[in-house]
């Protein structure tokens, strides 16, 4: 028997923007990261420099491309830009806050059940999940086809994308169960067993003493 195939996916949330700071819904709107933010991400950059990533992906939105440029500047030309890694499109709610929307009955329904409702002119849960699942499927397929037994992939993306990926790997979990701060990341370790990729662990990056449960 050959060695077990392993895959580590590092998911990093972009640096904070002005709309993020103001707690405004930011989906497909193309905002830059705030000045000085990357100074707070030096520890993450140092941690990621330890890994020989096989592939680096980033969302095509400015805040992610700026973050990837800071984190992997010397490998930026190797970075694959993929619009499937965008945040959910919030449609008419882009740029609005909870306080501005809290009396809107459509918004209240969406807060209670985001998979059954969607922002007006925005993206449905199925559309959002479908593009991310398609992306992940290609990552899994590529890792499985490689002769290397341990593949490592870096993905610079958005909070909603990371939360959805984590919830999809943890049965009985909701997308709301996970918190990921701007400029932080998680490492997902998987093994290929019985015809599929199984998640063994999820840990914070930079490495913390206590692993996420």
UniProtKB/TrEMBL annotation:
One of its GO terms (biological process) is regulation of pentose-phosphate shunt. Pfam families: His_Phos_1 (PF00300). One of its GO terms (molecular function) is fructose-2,6-bisphosphate 2-phosphatase activity. The active site is at residues 14, 87. InterPro entries: His_Pase_superF_clade-1 (IPR013078), His_PPase_superfam (IPR029033), Phosphoglycerate_Mutase (IPR051695). It comes from the Bacteria. Substrate binds at residues 13-20, 63. Keywords: Hydrolase. GO terms for cellular component: cytosol. The keyword Hydrolase applies. This is Alpha-ribazole phosphatase.
């Amino acid at each position: 028997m050959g060695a077990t195939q392993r895959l580590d996916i590092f998911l990093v949330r972009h640096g904070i923007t002005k709309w993020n700071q103001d707690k405004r819904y930011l989906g497909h709107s193309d905002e830059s990261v705030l000045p000085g933010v990357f100074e707070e991400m030096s520890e993450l950059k140092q941690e990621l420099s330890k890994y020989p990533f096989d592939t680096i992906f980033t969302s095509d939105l400015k805040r992610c491309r700026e973050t990837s440029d800071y984190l992997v500047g010397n490998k930026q030309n190797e970075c694959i830009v993929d619009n499937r890694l965008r945040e959910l499109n919030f449609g008419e709610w882009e740029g609005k806050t909870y306080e501005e929307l809290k009396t809107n009955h459509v918004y209240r329904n969406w807060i209670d059940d985001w998979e059954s409702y969607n922002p007006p002119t925005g993206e449905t849960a199925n559309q959002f999940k479908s593009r991310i699942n398609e992306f992940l499927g290609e990552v899994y397929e590529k890792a499985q086809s490689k002769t290397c037994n341990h593949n490592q992939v870096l993905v610079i993306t958005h909070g909603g994308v990371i939360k959805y990926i984590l919830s999809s790997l943890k049965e009985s979990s909701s997308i709301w169960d996970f918190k990921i701060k701007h400029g932080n990341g998680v490492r997902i370790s998987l093994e290929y067993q019985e015809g599929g990729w199984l998640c063994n662990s999820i840990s914070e990056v930079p490495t913390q003493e206590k692993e996420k449960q």
